[in-house]
Amino acid sequence: MDRTISTSRGLRGTVSVPGDKSISHRSVMLGALADGECVIDGFLRAADPLSTLACFGRLGVRHRFDGERLIVSGNGLHGLRSPDGELDAGNSGTTIRLMAGILSGQPFTTVVSGDQYLVKRPMRRIMEPLGRMGARIASSAAGTAPLTIDGRAPLTAVEYELPVASAQVKSAVLLAGLFADGTTTVVESEPSRDHTERMLRLPVEERSGRRHISVTGGTRIPAQPFLVPGDPSSAAFFAVAAAIVPGSQVLIRNVGMNPSRTGYLDVLTKMKARIAVENERTVGGEPVADLVVSSSELRSDIVVEGELIPNLIDEIPVLAVAAAFADGSFTVKGAGDLRNKETDRIAAVCSNLRRMGVDVEERPDGFAFESKKRLFSSDFDSFDDHRIAMAFGIASLALDGASTIKDAACVSISFPNFWDDVASLQR
Ligand code: S3P
User: Fold this and answer.
1) Theoretical Cys-Cys bridge with 135: which of 104, 197, 289, 349, CB 3.0 to 4.6 Å?
2) Is the overall model pTM greater than 0.85, yes or no?
3) What are the extents of the domains in the chain?
4) pLDDT, tens digit, for every residue of 85-118?
5) CA 170 / ligand 1 centre spacing (Å)
6) What's the CATH number for 21-227?
C-alpha cells in the first residue's frame, strides 16, 4: 500500500500514542515466566509484540484479551514446554534476541526464525554471551537466524561486559541469568534503555561510570499487573510533526519519559522546538507525561554522538527530518548499528533525504548535512521499515505539494493507527 500525503496547513489536536513496544515485549515475556496471571494494560497490539505473544503461545503459555487488556497466564520460571516446530519472530529483533536468552535456559532445543528482514540481522552479539553461559546456539554461516538454540539447565552465571551498547543484548543475558546457577552481572558503559532491570527490579550499581546490573538465578517472578506507558519512540513522530509544520500545536498524551529514552526531546529542545512537559506522573514504575509541542523556527548545528546514541537510536530518522527543516547542520556519528536495524537506516535516511533535496554525506557510522531551505515533495521509499515510513510521512506534511510513501502499511509493526492519527490532526 502506498500512501499519499499533502502539505499540512497546521496540525491541531490531541493524540494518545500507543503502548511502548519494548515494555510490551517484556511484559509478555515476564508474564509468561510469572507464577500466575498477569494483567497487562496498555499493551501495544501491533505486529512486533504480537509476534512475541504468538511465540510464547507455542511454548505453552496461554493468554486472552479482555477488550484492550491482555491477560497472560504465567507458567512459572520452569513451565515452558518444547514447541512442536519452528518459532516465528516475524520482523522483531527484540523478540528473537530476548527470547533467545530465555530459551537458552530451557532443557530443550528450539528453532527460531523470522521474516526476510530479520534473517539478515546480526545474532552473534547474543550467541556469544549465551554460549559462554552454556547454551549451544547454531546460526547461518553469516551469524543470522534461523537460530537453533540448544538450551542448558542450569546455565553458568557470568559477568559480561557489553561490547555493543544494546538493550537487547543486555536483556538477553539478564533473562538467561534467571536460569543460571548463581549471580549473573551485565556491565554497560553506555547506558541503554533500562526496562528489563526496572521490570525485574534488579539491583544496579554505578561504578567508575559503568552500570553493573545483577540477576540471581532462580529468582521467581510474582504474578503482577503491568501498566505499559505510551511509546516515546512513537511520540517522537508527532513531536517533530508539530515542530516543523507551521501553525501547529499538538497535545501528545501518555508519553513514556524514562530518562534512557528521552534523548530525542533534548535534541529537539536544542533545536529550539517549543515543547511543554505537563502532568508528569508515574505509570507502572515508569515516568510519564503529556507533551504540548508547537511549531517554531528550528535551528540545528547539532552533533549526535557518544552516549546519546543508544538513548535515541530509534528516533534518529525522524530527528534527521526535523533537522532538514532547521537552519544549520546536523551530524550523526558512532551510530553504525543503525545499519543493522529493520533496514539499513543510515542508507534509507540518506536516500530519502536526497529525494527531498538535502545534500547529505553518508558515512559508515552516520551522516551529515547542512540544511537548506529549498526542499521538494517526493516519492519516498519505506524500505519496509516502520520508522522510515513514519519519519518521511512526517516530512511530507511539511513539504510543498503531495509526496508518496511506498509500502506504507509497514507502520503496523509498531503503530497500526499511525496514518489515521496523522489525518486526525490535519485541519
Ligand atoms: C530495543 C532495543 C534497541 C532498539 C529496539 C528495541 C529493546 O535495539 O533499537 O527498537 O526493546 O531492547 P538494540 O538493543 O539492538 O540497540
Assistant:
1) 104
2) yes
3) 3-19+229-425, 21-227
4) 999 999 999 999 999 999 999 999 999 999 999 9
5) 10
6) 3.65.10.10
